[in-house]
Protein backbone atom coordinates (compact mmCIF):
# COMPACT_ATOMS: atom_id res chain seq x y z
CA UNK A 1 0.00 0.00 0.00
CA UNK A 2 1.29 3.44 -0.96
CA UNK A 3 1.60 6.01 1.88
CA UNK A 4 -0.15 9.37 1.32
CA UNK A 5 1.29 12.46 3.07
CA UNK A 6 -1.13 14.94 4.63
CA UNK A 7 -0.98 18.54 3.46
CA UNK A 8 -0.79 21.49 5.93
CA UNK A 9 -4.36 22.42 5.02
CA UNK A 10 -5.51 18.98 6.02
CA UNK A 11 -3.80 19.23 9.43
CA UNK A 12 -5.42 22.63 10.15
CA UNK A 13 -8.80 21.29 9.15
CA UNK A 14 -8.38 18.31 11.49
CA UNK A 15 -7.41 20.57 14.41
CA UNK A 16 -10.46 22.82 13.86
CA UNK A 17 -12.75 19.82 13.58
CA UNK A 18 -11.45 18.38 16.87
CA UNK A 19 -11.87 21.82 18.50
CA UNK A 20 -15.49 21.92 17.35
CA UNK A 21 -16.09 18.52 18.88
CA UNK A 22 -14.62 19.61 22.22
CA UNK A 23 -16.81 22.72 22.29
CA UNK A 24 -19.88 20.67 21.49
CA UNK A 25 -19.11 18.17 24.22
CA UNK A 26 -18.66 21.09 26.68
CA UNK A 27 -22.04 22.44 25.70
CA UNK A 28 -23.63 19.07 26.22
CA UNK A 29 -21.95 18.71 29.61
CA UNK A 30 -23.54 21.96 30.70
CA UNK A 31 -26.98 20.62 30.03
CA UNK A 32 -27.41 20.85 26.30
CA UNK A 33 -30.14 22.72 24.50
CA UNK A 34 -33.44 23.08 26.33
CA UNK A 35 -35.99 23.97 23.76
CA UNK A 36 -37.56 21.22 21.67
CA UNK A 37 -37.51 20.57 17.97
CA UNK A 38 -33.97 21.86 17.33
CA UNK A 39 -31.32 20.27 15.18
CA UNK A 40 -28.71 18.25 17.09
CA UNK A 41 -25.52 16.75 15.76
CA UNK A 42 -25.11 13.00 16.11
CA UNK A 43 -21.54 12.83 17.42
CA UNK A 44 -21.06 9.28 16.24
CA UNK A 45 -21.64 10.41 12.63
CA UNK A 46 -20.12 13.86 13.01
CA UNK A 47 -18.64 15.26 9.89
CA UNK A 48 -20.73 13.07 7.59
CA UNK A 49 -23.26 15.79 6.95
CA UNK A 50 -26.17 13.83 8.50
CA UNK A 51 -28.51 15.68 10.92
CA UNK A 52 -31.13 14.01 13.15
CA UNK A 53 -34.39 15.65 14.04
CA UNK A 54 -35.07 15.07 17.76
CA UNK A 55 -38.64 15.43 19.03
CA UNK A 56 -39.33 17.86 21.93
CA UNK A 57 -39.13 16.33 25.37
CA UNK A 58 -42.42 15.03 26.72
CA UNK A 59 -43.73 12.24 28.85
CA UNK A 60 -42.62 9.65 26.27
CA UNK A 61 -38.96 10.76 26.36
CA UNK A 62 -37.06 9.59 29.41
CA UNK A 63 -34.17 11.71 30.62
CA UNK A 64 -31.35 10.42 32.80
CA UNK A 65 -29.06 12.32 35.05
CA UNK A 66 -25.90 13.56 33.38
CA UNK A 67 -25.39 13.91 29.63
CA UNK A 68 -28.57 12.99 27.93
CA UNK A 69 -28.90 10.13 25.44
CA UNK A 70 -30.41 10.63 22.04
CA UNK A 71 -33.44 8.53 21.28
CA UNK A 72 -33.75 6.77 17.91
CA UNK A 73 -34.46 9.41 15.33
CA UNK A 74 -35.39 9.66 11.70
CA UNK A 75 -32.55 10.48 9.31
CA UNK A 76 -33.10 13.82 7.69
CA UNK A 77 -31.49 15.36 4.62
CA UNK A 78 -28.42 17.55 5.29
CA UNK A 79 -29.35 21.05 6.35
CA UNK A 80 -27.83 24.09 4.66
CA UNK A 81 -25.35 26.02 6.75
CA UNK A 82 -27.58 29.12 6.68
CA UNK A 83 -30.39 27.21 8.36
CA UNK A 84 -28.09 26.05 11.11
CA UNK A 85 -27.09 29.62 11.91
CA UNK A 86 -30.51 30.75 13.18
CA UNK A 87 -30.45 29.24 16.71
CA UNK A 88 -26.80 30.17 17.07
CA UNK A 89 -27.65 33.82 17.74
CA UNK A 90 -28.90 32.95 21.24
CA UNK A 91 -26.31 30.28 21.96
CA UNK A 92 -22.83 31.70 21.19
CA UNK A 93 -20.95 28.66 22.53
CA UNK A 94 -23.05 26.31 20.46
CA UNK A 95 -22.60 28.56 17.39
CA UNK A 96 -18.84 28.68 17.78
CA UNK A 97 -18.72 24.88 18.07
CA UNK A 98 -20.83 24.31 15.00
CA UNK A 99 -18.98 26.88 12.85
CA UNK A 100 -15.59 25.63 13.99
CA UNK A 101 -16.48 22.04 13.25
CA UNK A 102 -17.99 22.93 9.85
CA UNK A 103 -14.90 24.95 8.94
CA UNK A 104 -12.71 22.02 9.95
CA UNK A 105 -14.70 19.62 7.79
CA UNK A 106 -14.53 21.96 4.78
CA UNK A 107 -10.77 22.47 5.14
CA UNK A 108 -10.23 18.74 5.51
CA UNK A 109 -12.28 17.97 2.40
CA UNK A 110 -10.45 20.65 0.45
CA UNK A 111 -7.05 19.30 1.54
CA UNK A 112 -7.99 15.78 0.56
CA UNK A 113 -9.37 16.83 -2.82
CA UNK A 114 -6.26 18.91 -3.62
CA UNK A 115 -3.77 16.29 -2.46
CA UNK A 116 -2.12 14.42 -5.29
CA UNK A 117 -3.70 11.07 -5.95
CA UNK A 118 -1.49 8.09 -5.40
CA UNK A 119 0.16 6.97 -8.55
CA UNK A 120 -1.77 4.22 -10.23
CA UNK A 121 0.07 1.48 -11.97
CA UNK A 122 -0.35 1.60 -15.73
CA UNK A 123 -2.73 -1.10 -16.94
CA UNK A 124 -0.96 -4.13 -18.26
CA UNK A 125 -1.11 -4.36 -22.04
CA UNK A 126 -2.69 -7.47 -23.53
CA UNK A 127 -0.32 -10.38 -23.69
CA UNK A 128 1.19 -10.37 -27.13
CA UNK A 129 1.38 -13.45 -29.23
CA UNK A 130 4.30 -15.52 -28.47
CA UNK A 131 7.24 -14.25 -30.52
CA UNK A 132 9.25 -16.61 -32.73
CA UNK A 133 12.30 -17.66 -30.75
CA UNK A 134 15.43 -17.47 -32.92
CA UNK A 135 17.88 -20.31 -32.82
CA UNK A 136 21.49 -19.66 -31.83
CA UNK A 137 23.29 -17.04 -33.88
CA UNK A 138 25.98 -18.54 -36.04
CA UNK A 139 28.77 -16.39 -37.44
CA UNK A 140 29.15 -16.30 -41.18
CA UNK A 141 32.07 -17.80 -43.02
CA UNK A 142 35.27 -15.81 -43.32
CA UNK A 143 35.64 -16.83 -46.96
CA UNK A 144 33.85 -15.47 -50.02
CA UNK A 145 31.97 -18.17 -51.86
CA UNK A 146 32.73 -18.85 -55.47
CA UNK A 147 30.08 -18.38 -58.10
CA UNK A 148 28.18 -21.47 -59.17
CA UNK A 149 26.35 -22.50 -62.32
CA UNK A 150 23.59 -25.09 -61.92
CA UNK A 151 22.97 -27.92 -64.29
CA UNK A 152 19.37 -27.56 -65.43
CA UNK A 153 17.17 -30.35 -66.80
CA UNK A 154 13.65 -29.60 -68.01
CA UNK A 155 10.98 -32.27 -67.96
CA UNK A 156 7.87 -31.70 -70.07
CA UNK A 157 4.35 -33.00 -69.67
CA UNK A 158 1.42 -32.32 -67.41
CA UNK A 159 3.69 -31.87 -64.40
CA UNK A 160 6.49 -30.08 -66.23
CA UNK A 161 9.32 -28.89 -64.01
CA UNK A 162 12.98 -27.99 -64.04
CA UNK A 163 15.62 -29.86 -62.09
CA UNK A 164 18.48 -27.63 -60.90
CA UNK A 165 21.63 -29.42 -59.71
CA UNK A 166 24.40 -27.49 -57.88
CA UNK A 167 27.71 -29.30 -57.57
CA UNK A 168 29.48 -28.73 -54.24
CA UNK A 169 33.02 -30.17 -53.93
CA UNK A 170 33.59 -30.41 -50.18
CA UNK A 171 37.29 -29.58 -50.32
CA UNK A 172 37.43 -26.10 -48.80
CA UNK A 173 33.64 -25.77 -48.75
CA UNK A 174 31.51 -24.73 -45.78
CA UNK A 175 27.85 -25.33 -44.97
CA UNK A 176 26.00 -23.23 -42.39
CA UNK A 177 22.40 -22.98 -41.25
CA UNK A 178 20.76 -19.57 -41.13
CA UNK A 179 17.51 -18.82 -39.27
CA UNK A 180 15.23 -17.07 -41.75
CA UNK A 181 12.49 -16.65 -39.13
CA UNK A 182 9.65 -17.88 -41.37
CA UNK A 183 10.68 -15.50 -44.14
CA UNK A 184 11.15 -16.06 -47.86
CA UNK A 185 13.99 -13.79 -48.88
CA UNK A 186 16.80 -16.23 -49.59
CA UNK A 187 18.46 -13.65 -51.86
CA UNK A 188 18.88 -11.38 -48.83
CA UNK A 189 20.54 -14.20 -46.89
CA UNK A 190 22.84 -14.78 -49.87
CA UNK A 191 23.85 -11.11 -50.11
CA UNK A 192 24.32 -10.77 -46.36
CA UNK A 193 26.38 -13.93 -45.95
CA UNK A 194 28.52 -13.83 -49.10
CA UNK A 195 27.70 -17.49 -49.74
CA UNK A 196 27.75 -19.17 -53.13
CA UNK A 197 24.18 -20.41 -52.82
CA UNK A 198 21.36 -20.55 -50.26
CA UNK A 199 18.65 -23.21 -50.29
CA UNK A 200 15.73 -23.96 -47.99
CA UNK A 201 16.50 -26.39 -45.17
CA UNK A 202 14.57 -28.88 -43.04
CA UNK A 203 11.09 -29.06 -41.65
CA UNK A 204 9.36 -27.00 -38.95
CA UNK A 205 6.47 -27.91 -36.67
CA UNK A 206 3.04 -26.20 -36.36
CA UNK A 207 4.56 -23.85 -33.73
CA UNK A 208 7.14 -22.81 -36.37
CA UNK A 209 10.00 -24.39 -34.44
CA UNK A 210 12.73 -26.25 -36.33
CA UNK A 211 11.95 -29.96 -36.43
CA UNK A 212 14.73 -32.52 -36.37
CA UNK A 213 18.45 -32.40 -35.70
CA UNK A 214 20.26 -29.28 -36.90
CA UNK A 215 23.98 -28.68 -36.32
CA UNK A 216 25.81 -25.65 -37.70
CA UNK A 217 29.46 -24.78 -37.07
CA UNK A 218 29.51 -27.54 -34.44
CA UNK A 219 26.59 -26.03 -32.46
CA UNK A 220 23.29 -27.90 -32.08
CA UNK A 221 20.44 -25.60 -33.06
CA UNK A 222 17.71 -28.23 -32.83
CA UNK A 223 17.72 -31.72 -31.26
CA UNK A 224 17.12 -34.99 -33.04
CA UNK A 225 13.47 -35.95 -33.40
CA UNK A 226 12.38 -39.56 -33.08
CA UNK A 227 8.94 -38.57 -34.33
CA UNK A 228 10.29 -37.11 -37.57
CA UNK A 229 12.45 -40.13 -38.35
CA UNK A 230 13.99 -40.14 -41.82
CA UNK A 231 17.72 -39.62 -42.11
CA UNK A 232 20.60 -37.29 -41.26
CA UNK A 233 23.19 -35.85 -43.62
CA UNK A 234 26.29 -34.99 -41.58
CA UNK A 235 29.61 -33.40 -42.45
CA UNK A 236 32.65 -34.46 -40.40
CA UNK A 237 36.24 -33.53 -41.30
CA UNK A 238 35.23 -32.56 -44.82
CA UNK A 239 33.39 -35.83 -45.52
CA UNK A 240 29.62 -36.17 -45.96
CA UNK A 241 27.51 -39.18 -45.04
CA UNK A 242 23.85 -40.17 -44.85
CA UNK A 243 22.58 -42.26 -41.92
CA UNK A 244 19.22 -43.27 -40.51
CA UNK A 245 17.88 -40.81 -37.94
CA UNK A 246 16.86 -43.54 -35.52
CA UNK A 247 19.58 -43.88 -32.91
CA UNK A 248 21.83 -41.35 -34.66
CA UNK A 249 24.53 -39.78 -32.48
CA UNK A 250 26.60 -36.97 -33.93
CA UNK A 251 30.36 -37.50 -33.90
CA UNK A 252 32.40 -35.09 -31.73
CA UNK A 253 33.78 -33.22 -34.76
CA UNK A 254 30.48 -32.87 -36.62
CA UNK A 255 30.53 -29.48 -38.33
CA UNK A 256 27.14 -29.67 -40.05
CA UNK A 257 24.12 -31.95 -39.85
CA UNK A 258 20.47 -31.84 -40.87
CA UNK A 259 17.63 -34.29 -40.28
CA UNK A 260 14.73 -34.65 -42.72
CA UNK A 261 12.71 -37.31 -44.48
CA UNK A 262 12.52 -39.55 -46.36
CA UNK A 263 15.83 -40.95 -47.48
CA UNK A 264 15.50 -40.93 -51.26
CA UNK A 265 18.61 -42.96 -52.01
CA UNK A 266 20.25 -45.48 -49.68
CA UNK A 267 23.50 -47.21 -50.68
CA UNK A 268 23.04 -46.20 -54.31
CA UNK A 269 19.47 -47.53 -54.58
CA UNK A 270 16.05 -45.90 -54.39
CA UNK A 271 14.74 -45.68 -50.85
CA UNK A 272 11.12 -45.21 -51.98
CA UNK A 273 9.20 -48.48 -51.95
CA UNK A 274 6.31 -47.35 -54.18
CA UNK A 275 5.18 -44.35 -56.15
CA UNK A 276 2.24 -42.65 -54.44
CA UNK A 277 1.68 -40.37 -57.43
CA UNK A 278 1.90 -37.17 -55.37
CA UNK A 279 3.80 -34.55 -57.33
CA UNK A 280 5.28 -31.53 -55.57
CA UNK A 281 8.18 -29.12 -55.64
CA UNK A 282 11.19 -30.75 -53.99
CA UNK A 283 14.56 -29.94 -52.40
CA UNK A 284 17.18 -32.61 -51.71
CA UNK A 285 20.85 -33.22 -50.87
CA UNK A 286 22.80 -35.93 -52.71
CA UNK A 287 26.03 -37.49 -51.38
CA UNK A 288 28.56 -38.48 -54.06
CA UNK A 289 32.16 -39.63 -54.51
CA UNK A 290 32.25 -41.46 -51.19
CA UNK A 291 31.30 -38.30 -49.35
CA UNK A 292 33.80 -35.98 -51.01
CA UNK A 293 31.11 -34.06 -52.85
CA UNK A 294 27.51 -33.02 -52.45
CA UNK A 295 24.84 -32.01 -54.90
CA UNK A 296 22.06 -29.61 -53.96
CA UNK A 297 18.89 -30.53 -55.88
CA UNK A 298 15.93 -28.22 -56.50
CA UNK A 299 12.88 -29.32 -58.55
CA UNK A 300 10.48 -26.49 -59.39
CA UNK A 301 7.56 -26.16 -61.79
CA UNK A 302 6.25 -23.01 -63.37
CA UNK A 303 3.05 -23.34 -61.34
CA UNK A 304 2.68 -24.20 -57.63
CA UNK A 305 2.60 -27.92 -56.96
CA UNK A 306 4.36 -28.86 -60.18
CA UNK A 307 7.30 -31.20 -59.63
CA UNK A 308 8.29 -34.85 -59.36
CA UNK A 309 6.92 -37.53 -57.10
CA UNK A 310 9.31 -38.85 -54.46
CA UNK A 311 9.74 -42.07 -56.43
CA UNK A 312 10.56 -40.22 -59.66
CA UNK A 313 13.05 -37.94 -57.93
CA UNK A 314 14.75 -40.91 -56.27
CA UNK A 315 15.13 -42.67 -59.62
CA UNK A 316 16.59 -39.53 -61.20
CA UNK A 317 19.16 -39.19 -58.41
CA UNK A 318 20.17 -42.85 -58.64
CA UNK A 319 20.76 -42.34 -62.35
CA UNK A 320 23.05 -39.41 -61.50
CA UNK A 321 25.22 -41.61 -59.32
CA UNK A 322 24.02 -40.49 -55.89
CA UNK A 323 25.22 -42.85 -53.16
CA UNK A 324 22.74 -41.40 -50.69
CA UNK A 325 20.12 -38.66 -50.91
CA UNK A 326 17.88 -36.96 -48.37
CA UNK A 327 14.62 -35.18 -49.14
CA UNK A 328 14.45 -31.76 -47.42
CA UNK A 329 11.40 -29.59 -46.79
CA UNK A 330 9.56 -29.10 -50.08
CA UNK A 331 6.31 -27.87 -51.52
CA UNK A 332 5.91 -24.10 -51.06
CA UNK A 333 9.12 -23.95 -48.99
CA UNK A 334 11.28 -25.03 -51.93
CA UNK A 335 13.52 -22.17 -53.05
CA UNK A 336 17.11 -21.28 -53.91
CA UNK A 337 19.31 -18.25 -54.58
CA UNK A 338 22.82 -18.33 -56.07
CA UNK A 339 25.62 -16.21 -57.54
CA UNK A 340 26.34 -16.59 -61.22
CA UNK A 341 28.22 -14.31 -63.68
CA UNK A 342 28.28 -11.44 -61.21
CA UNK A 343 24.52 -11.58 -60.58
CA UNK A 344 22.22 -12.97 -57.95
CA UNK A 345 19.68 -15.37 -59.38
CA UNK A 346 17.04 -17.41 -57.66
CA UNK A 347 13.66 -19.03 -57.27
CA UNK A 348 12.03 -17.51 -54.23
CA UNK A 349 10.02 -19.87 -52.00
CA UNK A 350 6.28 -19.58 -52.42
CA UNK A 351 5.83 -20.15 -48.67
CA UNK A 352 7.68 -19.52 -45.40
CA UNK A 353 11.08 -20.99 -44.53
CA UNK A 354 12.43 -21.40 -41.00
CA UNK A 355 15.98 -22.59 -41.71
CA UNK A 356 18.06 -22.06 -44.81
CA UNK A 357 21.34 -23.76 -45.73
CA UNK A 358 24.09 -21.40 -46.90
CA UNK A 359 26.88 -23.02 -48.94
CA UNK A 360 30.30 -21.53 -49.61
CA UNK A 361 32.05 -23.24 -52.49
CA UNK A 362 35.81 -22.79 -52.46
CA UNK A 363 37.24 -20.60 -55.21
CA UNK A 364 39.97 -21.91 -57.55
CA UNK A 365 43.36 -22.31 -55.86
CA UNK A 366 41.96 -22.73 -52.34
Fold and architecture overview:
- With 366 residues, the protein is α+β, with helices and mostly antiparallel strands.
- 18% of the residues lie in helices and 29% in strands.
- The protein has five helices and 20 strands.
- It has a seven-stranded antiparallel beta sheet, with helices on one face. It has a five-stranded antiparallel beta sheet with strand order 6-20-7-18-19, covered by helices on one side.
Provide key terms for this protein.
single chain, 366 residues, alpha+beta, 2 domains, elongated, disordered N terminus
Give a concise summary.
By secondary structure, the chain is an alpha+beta fold. The chain has helices at 8-29, 81-84, 92-114, 186-193, 310-319, and strands at 39-40, 51-53, 74-76, 151-155, 161-169, 174-183, 197-200, 214-216, 219-222, 231-236, 239-244, 254-260, 263-266, 269-270, 282-288, 293-301, 324-327, 336-340, 343-347, 353-360.
Amino acid sequence: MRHQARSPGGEVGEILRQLGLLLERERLARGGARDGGEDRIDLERYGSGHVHKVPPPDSRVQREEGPFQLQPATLARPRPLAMLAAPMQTRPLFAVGILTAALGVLLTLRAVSSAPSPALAAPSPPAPQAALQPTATVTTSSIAGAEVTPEITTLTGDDAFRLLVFDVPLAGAQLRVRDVGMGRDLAHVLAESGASLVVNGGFFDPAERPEGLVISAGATLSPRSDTLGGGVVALVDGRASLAAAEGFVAAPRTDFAIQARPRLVVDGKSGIARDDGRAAERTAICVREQGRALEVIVARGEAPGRGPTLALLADMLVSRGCEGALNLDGGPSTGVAWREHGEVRGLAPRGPVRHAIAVWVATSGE
